[in-house]
Amino acid sequence: MSKNPEPWKARVVSSVTSDSDSAFQISFGDAKYLFNCPENTTRAMLSRKFGFNKYKAIFLSRISNETSGGLPGFLMTLADSGTSDLTVHGPPGLLHFLASARSYLLRDRLKLEASETDTEAPGPIYKDQNVSIYAIPVNPSASNQLINPAPEPGSPSSLKRKHADVYDGAPARKRSSSERASQNGSPQRSQTLIRDDPDAWRKLVVARMFPGTHGITFHSGIDYTVRELRQPLPSWTSRPFATSYLVVGPEFRGKFDAALANSLGVPNGPARRKLTLGENVTLPNGQIITPSMVIGKTTPSASVLVVDCPDPRYIDGLISSTYLKDLLSRQPQHLHCVFHMASQQTMSDPRYVEWMSSLGETVHHIVSNSSVCADEITYPAAEALQKRLSTLDQDIFRVPASKSEAEQSLPSLPPVLKVVTSRRQVIGMRPLLEPENEVILNQFEGDEMLAAVEDRSFKGIKEKVMAELAPSVVQPGDDVSVTCLGTGSAMPGKYRNVSGLLLQIPGSGNVLMDAGEGTWGQLRRNFGDKCDQVLRETKCVFLSHIHGDHHMGISRILAHRRKLSPPPTEPVYLVCTRGTWSYLKEYNELEDLGLDEPSGVRAIFCESLEHRQSPPNAQTMNNVKELCASLQLESVKTAEVVHRTKAFGLILRHSNGWSLTYSGDTKPCQNLVVAGMESTILIHEATMADDQVEMAEEKAHSTIGQAVDIAKRMKVQKLLLTHFSARYPKIPVLGTHGSQLASRSEITIMPEVFIAFDFLNIRLGDFARVERYLPNLEAAFSELQDDVVTTLEQ
Predict the structure, then answer these.
(1) How far apart, in whole angstroms, are the C-alpha atoms of residue 573 and residue 779?
(2) Which site from 323, 500, 516, 667 is most exposed, i.e. has the minimal number of CB atoms within 10 Å?
């Protein structure tokens, strides 16, 4: 029981839109608790200035991209923000999910306790001074199957693989025990544990990933080596649990009435202390004083119910749960709010409506699904910036697709129900308040930015530039376009998402180059209703290396591709490192990514395509030939570059005579120069400004000047700079390179150069035009101080 009546509230972090899914937060003055962590959770919080401190626990309702896809990135952010202890609860599969990310998700300063719940525990699964949280796991009802439902993600029927290392897209033979012993140096200790207690092995892997400053205790006292932990995880069969959570807040003890105690003759000191502790006191005259005689009425606990009922198959299990009924019967008058992660089909079901009504007339219901939530932009600052840029050239600076009105209204519900849809909703739990839309202060970084752009009006500049340009001869590749889906580095920001680029080759297909967290949402915002077709036409995905900001969004994309109807008739070729492929194979056991389908995903390892290497094996050669044929490519090669982990650049040469080189993350690299010599376009990272050469060297990145120098040495025609540090969230500092571009006539070896922005759509033939926009862009932003993200420290 809490002594001081501290205010607390529940709020919507994000709702269901094209680039976000449902997440909710409970917040006290000294603690925060997060419910679900879908893709883009970190970015949504940055946009709303929530801050990343004081998080105590995270609770996941399911293991899927829609509910947990943002967890790895969020854990990185929390750890880097100073969080040292954290608890994560979820259904079975949580440990496998976390352990599958061990190749890129390591934070030694964070101690993480991960716990799975698949049964109704007799008490709270989590309890501290603020909250008691109960888990209600629900299985779908076999008697209430949807008509022709899609296979459950990760179900045995949809997964065909057995755990084995895979090379060049083809299964390799299993290694013998002696081979594994030779590699690990300890054949028995890990293999025995994997065989006899696979969950204990997964837990050990997670403990190694997040040891914290206090260190970890290993199973049976054995110090397993990092090398041992790299071997494949035990096989996993998914179970389609959907877990709901009841959050019960603290009771607040009434105030001690000193005046009344004086009138009753209760002396100061130990007697009054006993009363505050709930004990009776006997006065010298024999009168018995009870706590209720001098202490005000206790304020009962308020509670929040977070419900995940993704489709009608889960309704019976939820509404018939005797455990949930018992929990709610203990404090029926205290349930103040229910967050519903429920499809429109679920919300329209009479059983669900009746159950909602049974919870009482005073309960507030907040509903989040794609039908009733308006598809509004989740990141208003990025939207505002894009709208301003579009006044310069709306053909290359497209405004993200959005809808201010919901597709449908809530189904007919009893009028006594207090129901709203989730859109920045916040509801007070102490004091008890009505839901309201939370006001976001300074979400557009002030109107001075808009005023600066308007003062230097972009209107007419496009027409002026086009009039000045001399007629040009059509060149091979002029109609090829590059769409920038993420142009920031390390972590998402308000203006730039993490790495992602889409190359569209008319008449051939598309190539996706890197796919950081949130790339699927960026695709949906950029292409709107055409997004599924764009995905269907994507023939190749290139993932440059294992760092999370370059691949954490690929599972969402592949999972959605797997669900396309009708399904794709051709495979997508995934060019990636062996480590990335191993991670995806393990995640595939949780959610079907189509890795085993004939028209699904075929792997080609970067190592096998390195331009200096001898020809790869027959299986890889066959995959490469098919890939080249599908995109009309003359060749596809990789070049190993210089980064803090094994990383590669990509070189595509088309049969029409144009070519592209993409650097991925790298320091200046001669191997890339050789491999991409005389490319039509070079897309090169430019993480740091020219005054940060030492930092770039330390972090194995390039400066703007170094990227320009690489382009000159490579003798490329066009250079697109990307992967900018959060120090330059709006526009990087070109410095002397900007003046060089302005006087191109004096420097004939300079390629055409432009700066990447999120949602930039640029044809190779338009570089000469858009390059001339740079002085106007720099002038428009020159007087505005870039907002280096300080939210992490809040």
Answers:
(1) 43
(2) 323
What pLDDT shows up at residue 226? 54
The amino acid present at 790, given as its one-letter code, is T
Q: How is 242-255 classified by DSSP, letter by letter?
A: EEEEEEE---BPPP
C-alpha dihedral (39, 44, 50, 54), degrees to nearest 10: 0
Residues 6+ apart with CB under 8 A from 157: 151
Q: Any residues with CB less than 8 A from the CB of 672 and at least 6 apart, and which?
A: 639, 641, 649, 661, 663, 666, 710, 714
φ/ψ of residue 258, rounded to 5: -65, -40
Beta-strand ranges (E) seen in 434-508 are: 436-437, 481-486, 500-505
Token couple for 86: 């954290």
Tokens of 31: 């603690």
The 8-class DSSP code of residue 211 comes to B
Q: How far apart (Å, rounded) are the C-alpha atoms in residues 477 and 752?
A: 15
pLDDT at 221: 43
CA distance 234 to 232: 7
Q: Say which DSSP state 241 is in.
A: -
User: In the prediction, which pLDDT does 124 show?
Assistant: 95
**What gap in Å lies between CA 364 and CA 114, rounded to an integer?**
31
How many whole angstroms from its chain centre is CA 690? 31
418-421 vs 425-430, strand pairing mode: unpaired
Alpha carbon 170 to its chain centroid, in Å, reads: 30
Give the separation between CA 478 and CA 752, rounded to whole angstroms: 13
Amino acid (1-letter code) at residue 467: A
List the structure tokens of 54: 């004081």
**Residue carrying the six token digits 């250079």:** 719
Residue type (1 letter), 576: C
Report how far residue 702's alpha carbon sits from residue 647's, in angstroms, rounded to the nearest whole number.
14
DSSP string, 148-189: SPPPPTT-GGG----S--EETTEEPPPPPHHHHHHHHS-HHH
Task: Report the distance separating Cα 444 and Cα 55, nearest Å.
Answer: 26
Q: 519-527 vs 554-562: helix axis angle to the nearest 10?
A: 60
Is 298:254 a contact under the CB 8 Å cutoff?
A: yes
**What does the pLDDT read at residue 735?**
57
Q: Is 589 left (phi over 0), alpha (psi -120 to 50) or beta?
A: alpha
Backbone angles phi, psi at 483, to 5 degrees: -110, 125
Strand partners, 299: 252
Q: Are strands 55-59 and 85-90 parallel, antiparallel or unpaired?
A: parallel
The whole-model pTM stands at 0.88
Residue ranges of domains in the chain, CATH in brackets: 258-294 (no CATH), 475-755 (3.60.15.10)
How far, in Å, are 94, 104, 192, 199, 545 from residue 219 at the CA level? 19, 23, 12, 12, 32
Phi, psi of 738 (to 5 degrees): -65, -40
Determine contact, residues 671/647, Cβ cutoff 8 Å: no
Compute the C-alpha angle 319/321/326, nearest 5°: 110
Q: How far apart are CA 15 and CA 21, in angstroms?
A: 5
**Cβ pair 732, 764 in contact under 8 A:** no
CA distance 531 to 7: 44
Give the number of C-alpha atoms closer than 13 A to the C-alpha of residue 282, restricted to the C-beta side. 2
Cβ pair 708, 716 in contact under 8 A: no
- Tens digit of each residue's pLDDT (9 = 90 or more) over 458-496: 878 888 998 888 888 899 999 999 999 999 999 999 899
666 and 706 in contact (C-beta within 8 Å)?
no
The reported pLDDT for the residue numbered 496 is 94
**pLDDT tens digits, 698-742:** 999 999 999 999 999 999 999 999 999 987 766 776 655 554 554
d(CA 359, CA 325): 10
Q: How many CB atoms lie within 10 A of CB 715?
A: 14
Sheet strand arrangement including 647-654: 633-641, 647-654, 659-662, 681-685, 718-722, 752-755
| Strand-pair partners of 602 | 573
